[in-house]
Specification:
- This protein is an alpha/beta fold.
- It has three domains: 166 residues, inorganic pyrophosphatase (n-terminal core), CATH 3.90.1640; 145 residues, no CATH class; 116 residues, Diaminopimelate Epimerase, Chain A, domain 1, CATH 3.10.310.
- Helices cover 42% and strands 18% of the residues.
- The strands form three sheets. A six-stranded mixed sheet has the order 9-10-11-12-14-13, sandwiched between helices.
- Helix 11 crosses helix 13.
- It is globular, with a radius of gyration of 22 Å.
- 43% of the residues are buried.
- The mean pLDDT is 92.
- Bound molecules: cytidine-5'-monophosphate (C5P) (2 copies) and zinc ion.
- The site of one cytidine-5'-monophosphate has 17 residues, from helix 14, strand 13 and strand 14.
Amino acid sequence: MLNAISNVAKQFLEKTENKPIQVISHHDTDGITSASIITKALQRLNKEFSLRIVKQLDSEVFKEMPKDKVILFLDLASNSFQYIQDLKNQVFILDHHEIISEIPGNVTIINPHLFHEEEISGAGLSYLFAKELDNQNTDLAYLAVIGMVGDMLEKNLGKIYTNILKDSKVVIKKGLTLYPATRPIDKILEYSSDIYIPNVSGSSAGVNAFLRDIGVQRINNKYKNLIELNPEETSKLITAISLQSTNIKDSSEIIGNIYLVNFFNKIEDVRQISAMINACSRLGESGTAISLCLQNKKAKAKAEEIYTHYRQNIVSALADLPHLRKIENKNYLIILAEDKIKDTIIGTIASILSNSKNYEEGKAIIAMAHNERGDKIKVSARIVGKNGKNIREVLNSVIEEVGGEVGGHKFAAGCLVEKEKEQQFIDMLQKKLEIEMVKI
Ligand code: C5P
Ligand code: C5P
Ligand code: ZN
C-alpha cells in the first residue's frame, strides 16, 4: 500500500500543477483530522485549494461540485461511485469505507480494503499521503493517531500504524482506559460515562469512600491523575471497578492503551482530544475543529465550550431514550427518534448504546432521526460486539429497493432515506434482519 500511496502522491502533484483543488472530507474526528493534515500539507506546497466538510456525500453535495478543479475526497466516497462516475473532474480518494461498486475511470483511489494489509483510518491515509508530498509533514503524525483513536481502530495495530505512532511521538501507556487519563482519578470516576458504579458514579462523597476503601490516598488534599497511579494502585482500582460496576463484565474491557500527546504544550489524552474534535464538528463548528487540530490558540477555549454543550446534548438525548418509539426483539432494536434527537448526534447515540454492554453480542442497533429540513431520515446502525452480520450489506440491500445513500463498515454503517419512504424502509429492514439471522 505504501508504494501505491507514493505513486498516487506523484500523480496528484502532476494533475494539480495548474489546477486548483477541492478537498471534501467527513465531519467526524477521522475526517476532520484528515482534512487538517491535508490543509497543512497543501498550504506548505502553496497550492490553491478550498475545503468542504460534509455529513455524508449525497446528491446535494454533487450538485455543488466545482467543474474545473481536481477533487480530493478524504474519509469518504468509496460508496459514492454512482455520483462520481458522472463528474468530468479528475478525482482522488483516500478512504477506508467499504467499496460497493466498480471503481470509475476518473478515480484514483487508496483504500486499505484493496490491499488486504491492515485497516488504516482516513487520517492515517492522509498522513501517509502528506508525508509523500513532503517529508516535513512528519510533524502531523499526531493527527493520524487522533483520527485512528476517533474511529476506534487502536485495538488491532499493524506495522503501518506502528510506524505512524513512532513518527508521532505519542506516548503509549498500558492501563485503565477511562478518559481523560490526565485528570485526577476522583473526577474521572465521578463523571465517566463509560462505567457505572452504583453509589459512586455521579457522587463525590461516594467516590471518596470508594477510593479510601481500596487504599488510594490523597496527596496534599488532591488525588493523583490516572496516569500517575502506580501499578499496584491501578490494579486495585481495576479489580474494584470490575467487581462493583454494573456494566463491566470483565476487567479486560477497561484495560488497554492510553495514548498521550503533547498538545498546546500540555500532555493530553488522545481520546479526550478526539472527543472534542468530534463535538465541535457535529455541532456545526468544523472550522473550530480544524483550528483546534492545528493547535491554533484561539480555537482551544471555544472548543472546550462547545464540548461542554455537546455533552449536555448527549446526556439529554440519552435521557429522552425511554420515551421514544422502539421496535425491539431478540435480534434487533430500532429506535425512532424522529425530531427528538439531532441527525448529527444520532450516530453517537447508536455507538453509545452498542458499547453499553446492555445488549447481547451480535444484536443490531438501528437509530433513526429526521434531518434538519425534515425531508429525510438519517439512519445509524451498529452491531453489538465484533461478531454478527455485515450491517452495511443489510442496509445496502434495503436501500437498493427503497432508494437513498448508504455506506460504512461491517459493524457500523448508515444511510439516508426519503422521509416518505420511512415505513417502507422499516418494514423491509425488519424483513432483511430476520432473513439474515436465519442465514447465520
Ligand atoms: O465514518 P465512519 O468511519 O467514521 O464511522 C465511524 C464509526 O465506524 C465508529 O463508530 C467506528 O467505531 C466504526 N468503525 C468500525 N469499523 C471500522 C471503522 C470504523 O466499526 N473498520
Ligand atoms: O453516521 P454514522 O456514524 O451512523 O455512520 C456510520 C458509518 O457509516 C460511518 O463510517 C459513515 O461514514 C458511514 N455512512 C456512509 N454513508 C451514509 C451514512 C453513513 O458511508 N449515508
Ligand atoms: Zn474514518
